[in-house]
Amino acid sequence: MESLGHFNYWLAIVIIMIGFYGVIARRNLLKQVIALGLFQTGVFLFYVTMGVYRSPDGTRGVAPIWTDAAKTGPFDNPLPHVLMLTAIVVSVSTLAVAVAIIVNIQRKYGTIEEDEILEADKRDS
Amino acid sequence: MELVLPEAIHAHLPVLVVLLPLFGGLLALFTGLIQRGGGFVAWLWSAIITGLILVCAASMLFEVHTTGEAMVYRLGSWPEQYGIGYSVDALNGYVILVVAIIGFLSTIYAKDSVMAEIARDRHHLFYSVWLLAIAGLIGITVTADTFNIYVLLEISSLTVYTLVALGGDRDRRALVASLKYLILGSIGATFILLGIGYLLMLTGTLNMNDMHEQLVRMHQSGELANNRTVFVSFALLMVGLSLKMALFPLHLWLPNAYTYAPSAVTALVAATATKVGVYMTFRFVFTIYGGVYDSSADLYFLGLCACAGVVISSMAAIRQMNVKKVLAYSSVGQIAYIVLGFSLANESGVTASVIHIFNHALIKGGMFMAVGAVALRAGGTKIEDFKGIGRKMPLTMAAFTVGGCGLIGVPLTAGFISKWYLVVGAMDEGYWGIAFIVLLGGVLALVYIWRLVEIIWFGKPDDPTKQVREAPLSMLIPMWILIGASVAFGVDAGWTADSAHAAAELLLEGGP
To answer: Hey, CA dihedral for B2, B6, B7, B13, is it positive or negative?
Structure first.
């Protein structure tokens, strides 16, 4: 049961690893970048899971909003959530820069397949 | 060196060095509104901003050395456990000064180089991104908050990817190199983020000193014995940081990114970006995990990678047909020296690392500037473009040659000082093999530098009628300041050695 209790963490690691595999295995630049996005998303899930509070007797924390429940009972740690807001912004900007570069590669090479790009470079030199 | 700033500015210096380039970079965009000469205004603006940063950085290091205490700045006056704290001590004051010096000089240098290599209508964008990159690099070094490190790391990385991709106007391979850098860099940064996450789980805080205190407390109460979280966080951080500082064998993004980037960008990035990565590694290994987590086995492994890196990347440098690529592979080797130094985890070794951060920044910055001048005047950086160019651009090529001597580690150059400390550090631990590797690395550097020097001074140009002039003054002056400083600090290493020593002592307080 111990390992089932960590279900979310398992899921986060699985997503991270699927993304990581995609970055390495795919030869299409856009697919690599999509996989990179997945890779980062797994980390967000990891952080958000980390914030969840569960007391030893099993009561769950409530959302960290200024409500009656949160004033009296336990609440989830808002810090990791806030960090992930920033990290999502970072991830989106990374993808934006990546896609902008890929658009330029498509313009200059006429392809976004890594093998064809390598071949074109070999022809040049 | 007496720098007295008004009290009101003085207290805010740690945050000013980040805010100046951050807002300066945003404001630089508006120079695009100027119809004619907008590029020049953008350059002038960047030069003023980076000059101010240099004054701030020098004044901070001066203050830290005179008082012997860290300067602490709390953003929004929040206590450090909740808010973001910036702090400057003997170590990061030194690294900030390195970034500020290189930032200022390469901005001066960039004027003619950017004029020639970047399309006219993009100059304001170039300088805007340029200043943001400097903001990110300085931010990483000044902050004491681990998550802030991640954010600023991404700011500096994203801007550097963009700057590298701007080389695509001249050579389309820059685009592919930039995307490769982006993918590997993002993987590295995400690993760092995961590592910080595990640390946050363990300690419940993001502030470095607070983290360290929590870890020490847990260590003393025995909670850390066989704790897998601390092990996993350390491993994730090391992989991410090694990618960021291009430690062999995770250096694959570096050679192409440096080669195809615009010349000014290469000079800035080669001299600062990987150094800042090394600085982060110092912070994590010594300031956070120091005395808590026994990292000797991991450091031993890093040392092995570094030894392999010194030899293999120097051999790769010998085979390259593009001078920029020779220097890029040499950078991988030099980073390996720095890692080798701190993996020894003794005083001489860490001093060698810290001092080599400064020395290598001077030497490599100066050499890439010289290569950029050739790119401007001769139109390329291939080996053929360098044939016999010593007679046409004597001042530039003299700087290149003196810098090359520094890479080899010839006595009376700064490179010699670094290697001296490194060999002493290795001897202290009784590692004769490392001393041998350092000497072998010097010999290999001699081979790849001599190959270039021979072509430069004794080669016959393919096309003798080709007109090549000496580089403009705006390039020669920053280049020679860097190369001259590398010789000056090689002859009298008093100031650099003292500063590096103070930084090393600070790091080793907690033990490895």
So the answer is: negative
Q: How many folded domains does chain A comprise?
A: 1
> Is pLDDT of B100 > 90?
yes
CATH of the domain at A98: 1.10.287.3510
Task: Write out the DSSP string of B191-257.
Answer: HHHHHHHHHHHHHS--BHHHHHHHHHHHHHTTTTTT-HHHHHHHHHHHHHHHHHTT-TTS-TTHHHH
C-alpha gyration radius of chain B: 22
**Cα B183 versus chain centre, distance:** 20
Return the ∠ at Cα A14 (arms to A10 and B293), rounded to 5°: 65
Q: Which domain holds residue A48?
A: 2-124
The interface pTM score, or ipTM, of the predicted complex is 0.93
Residue B5's pLDDT is: 67
Name which of A23, A83, A97 is nearest B162 (Cβ-Cβ): A97
- Note the Cα A83 to chain centre separation in Å: 13
pLDDT above 90 for A60: no
Tens digit of pLDDT for each residue in A37-55? 999 999 999 998 888 877 7
Question: Mutation test of the interface with chain B: which of A43, A83, A106, choosing the one with the most B Cβ atoms within 10 A?
Answer: A83
A61 touches chain B (CB under 8 A): no
Question: For the ranges A58-67, B135-144, B495-504, which has the lowest average pLDDT?
Answer: A58-67
